[in-house]
Amino acid sequence: MTKLQLITKGFVKDNPTFVLLLGMCPTLATTTSAINGLSMGLATLFVLVLANMAISAVAPVVPDKVHIPVYIVIIATFVTLLQLLMQAFVPDIYATLGLFIPLIVVNCIVLGRAEAFANKNTVLDSALDGLGVGLGFTCSLTVLGIVREILGSGSVFGWKFISGDGMLAFVMAPGAFLALGYLMVLFNKFVAKK
Amino acid sequence: MEILLIIVSAIFVNNIVLAQFLGICPFLGVSNKLSTATGMSAAVCFVITLATLVTYLLNKYLLLPFQLEFLQTISFILVIAALVQMVEIVLKKMSPSLYQALGIYLPLITTNCAVLGVAMNVVQKEYTFGLPSHMLGLGEAVLYAFATSLGYGLAMVIFAGLREQLALSSVPKAFKGIPIALITVGILAMAFMGFSGIA
Amino acid sequence: MAVQSNLKNMFVCLFGTCLVCSALLAGVYAMTKAPIDATNARLLKEAVGAVLPEGGELSDAQTLEVGGQPSEYYVLNQDGTPAAYAVKSTVVGFGGPLTLMVGVTADGTVYNTSVLSHSETPGLGAKCTTDEKFMAQWKGFNPAEKILKVKKDNGDVDAITASTITSRAYTLAVENAVNALKSIGGLNND
């Protein structure tokens, strides 16, 4: 696999949301608007890249039986780091995403990439892999956020082009499931190659 | 009255899956059959209640006095991981039949965000339950965690029942599997929205 | 994955990882503590400033009881006398706690209100942070002349359409704040 493929595979072929079905909780919970989806995606990307790099660096010296706890500690460290930085510099976004920032620790994408890729590849390849998967995740979250924001509040990235309220259900819980379900149908129909 | 409010609010109004979006991965993953869904729910219920009890005490008596709140994420996840391992070992020794029933689900629970989510929610948010808003006491916290996990079980069992029916009906090819399941959950979530405002 | 596990290297490895990670975090925590405190202080100042008249000197947080539970308030001193107060007031809304900052001038008139945190329904109760008509009516609301109840309850407060419960809660929060100030003798109209 070339370096470029490592980055691009996350968009369609191994898209974490639509193909691998990983990290569903933040996907559904934080995509009430495009900007929220994008911020959550970038936050996950940050953790993915750094955790992948750190894990690929230490993997050769970690005893087999304790590798999961060690990985979890490393991931949790970067998540806490992110929490502190966000509280200091982007408190508004931190407040909106709330609980789902600390929950990146248990996002199956991060531990999944550590197990499936980072522990047997070089630091550079792992960083690129994290970048690729993270970008794919960010991309799907932003798309879902845009769709829900258009339908739910008639705006995109806060820019309102339809006056009135929109279909409020799409901003609330049921709309998250419905929007993701229908987006997956479209993805299966037009993008995925069987 | 207050106890009733906690229970109703945690199970129906703020249902952990359908309103708070926690624990979706196992919710979609193991809800194909009613029997596995029940097993998973029981295991989650057990772990959430126990984990909340331990993390609550950890937070109150170790992190808060030393102003180490920023270590909440990392210490909670370690405690949960260790706890799940311990439960697995104890169950294996003490009650092989229960281990047979819950055993295969236990390793999956460490990365179930519902467990960490509830533990963090309990120590970070203020709740009302018909009283002025306040941080939860130990008893309330454990009751809230238990009721929340019952809500998880309820959503899981209803959904598994629906999916068993769904498996028999013919749906368009692009809808097969997860997409139709998500749309079903959406409709289920709408039904649960009817409870909002009760508590 | 080449390393064989034994008790010693498992212990050393886990212990080492935890040590390095917590040391790293403690370092970052120490570095970000000042910016986080500064940000929180700025946000609080903005929240308090938004509901009070301009000018004067703002006091530090002081405690009082609002609606039967401990809360805090800030005094704005102009020329050495208290000119206005900002009170934090929490009530139970439709979806959970609803916390307001209520600014009241010394003559007992509400200067302005703002929502600090809420969990109301998006598009319905959550409009209490965006609905201009609802928000504007609090500016200069005088509880001595008007009744602090929504119109449905024979008062003078225009409720948000389809969100009576949120509007009632909001009104109660303002009422609690005004009463709390009265009880500490902060207002000079009575």
Short key terms for the protein model shown above:
heterotrimer, A: 194 residues, mainly alpha, two-stranded antiparallel ribbon, 2% strand, globular, C: 190 residues, alpha+beta, six-stranded antiparallel sheet, 24% strand, elongated
Q: What fraction of the residues of chain C are assigned to beta strands by DSSP?
A: 15-25%
Q: How many extended strands of chain B?
A: 0
| Total helical segments of chain B | 9
- Main sheet specs of chain C: 6 strands, antiparallel
Helix content of chain C: 25-40%
Instruction: Please provide the count of β strands of chain C.
Output: 6
From the spread of the alpha carbons, the general shape of chain C counts as elongated
**How much of the residues of chain B is beta strand, in percent?**
under 5%
Q: What distance separates the N and C termini of chain B?
A: 11 Å
**Could you state the oligomeric state of the chains shown?**
heterotrimer
Q: Roughly what is the average pLDDT of chain C, rounded to an integer?
A: 84
For the residues shown, what is the average pLDDT of chain B? 85
The residue fraction in helices of chain B comes out at over 70%
Largest interface: A-B, 41 and 43 residues
Question: What does this entry look like structurally?
Answer:
The complex is a heterotrimer of chains A (194), B (199) and C (190). Chain A has 194 residues and is mostly helical. Chain A is globular. In chain A, helix 7 packs across helix 8 (173-191). Chain A has helices spanning 3-8, 24-29, 34-58, 67-89, 91-97, 108-116, 123-153, 173-191; strands at residues 155-156, 159-160. Chain A has a two-stranded antiparallel sheet with strand order 1-2. With 199 residues, chain B is mainly alpha-helical. Chain B has 9 helices and no strands. Chain B has helices at residues 2-13, 24-29, 34-63, 72-94, 96-102, 106-109, 113-124, 138-168, 178-193. Chain B is globular, with a radius of gyration of 18 Å. The mean pLDDT of chain B is 85. With 190 residues, chain C is an alpha+beta fold. Chain C has 3 helices and 6 strands; from the N terminus they run αββββββαα. Chain C has helices at residues 7-50, 132-136, 164-183, and strands at 57-58, 62-66, 69-78, 81-92, 97-105, 110-117. In chain C, strands 1, 2, 3, 4, 5 and 6 form a 6-stranded antiparallel sheet that branches. The longest helix of chain C is centred in the N-terminal third of the chain and has 44 residues, at 7-50. Chain C is elongated, with a radius of gyration of 23 Å. Classes of the chains: A mainly alpha (194), B mainly alpha (199), C alpha+beta (190). Chains in contact: A-B, A-C, B-C. The interface between A and C is medium-sized, with 34 and 27 residues.
